[in-house]
Amino acid sequence: MLQQTQVATVLPYYERWMRRFPTVEDLARAEIDDVLALWQGLGYYRRCRNLLAGAKWIGEHGMPQSREAWRNVPGVGDYTSAAIASICFGEPVAVVDGNVERVHARHCASELVGSRLRRQAQAWAQDLLVCDHPCDFNQAMMELGARVCRPRNPQCQDCPLNISCLANRSGTQSEFPRRTAPIQVREIDKHFVIHTNEDRVVMVRIPDGQWAEGMWSFPEVVPEPCDRPLVQFSYQVTHHRISATASVRETRYQGDGTEMTPEEVEAAALPAPQRKIWEAYKASYAGIKTRRRATTASR
């Protein structure tokens, strides 16, 4: 949950998640719709699917006891496997996150970036590893980067490595790690339609391979001249800035969709942009329909 997400944002999600799935076995028995619904709003939904797949793998194979064994669990890579193995099982393997990369880049004045810097930092940290206490060493290194060798205003006077740090000795701390070339942001337009049938609306399952795959969305269509925007907003996914528009059509949807009641939509797993469209619909159009029914009944 903490991958690319701040602690303050994660905490309420974590607490709800642990109440619903207190053990790996509880999670392994869950359905994808249940876990996605609980995760909605956190984004990067592949993390959620990996958690479920990992729990099911552990349910079949048992809890791994080594770094190599953890690498077999879906969604677990170098960082997570090393962290679990060293902190939980005392395995002498170095953990390298962005903080440790920064400490290494400054200490060695490394010109590398990306995966090459990560591999170099891994070898450097492994050479320094105190094998008798790998848990303490790894947590100390990550804290050193987070609290002392900070991205901005590093506290070099408090750093135990300041004498041997090449960047500190040359006064070039701000130049490391080297920056990669910025990735061009791509602009995308999307138009969604809420097809209504009495009190039901049409939802479609987001296909595999797309953002938020497996969750629910209002159908994405080519806008028509008669469409009147219900809501317009922009949001960003990775390096894509998306301008979204949604409108309402009281017509039958011609594609493969599922009609849902308002209660079903409320319980469904919706990505944050789709939830925003739904809230706009409830606030405006649904209220209009209610007033229309009341007027008709009074007549």
Task: Please summarize what this structure is.
This protein is α+β, with helices and mostly antiparallel strands and 299 residues long.
Report what the structure shows.
With 299 residues, the protein is of the alpha+beta class. Helices cover 46% and strands 14% of the residues. Strands 1, 2, 3, 4, 5 and 6 form a six-stranded mixed β-sheet that branches. The chain is globular. The N and C termini lie far apart (54 Å). The model is unreliable at 294-298 (pLDDT under 50).
List the helices and strands and how they pair.
Layout: H1 7-20, H2 24-28, H3 32-39, H4 46-61, H5 67-70, H6 78-89, H7 98-108, H8 114-128, H9 134-148, H10 166-170, E1 186-197, E2 200-205, E3 216-217, E4 229-237, E5 240-249, E6 258-260, H11 262-267, H12 272-283, H13 285-298
Parallel strand pairs: 1-5
Antiparallel strand pairs: 1-2, 2-3, 2-6, 4-5
Helix pairs in contact: 6-9, 7-8, 7-9
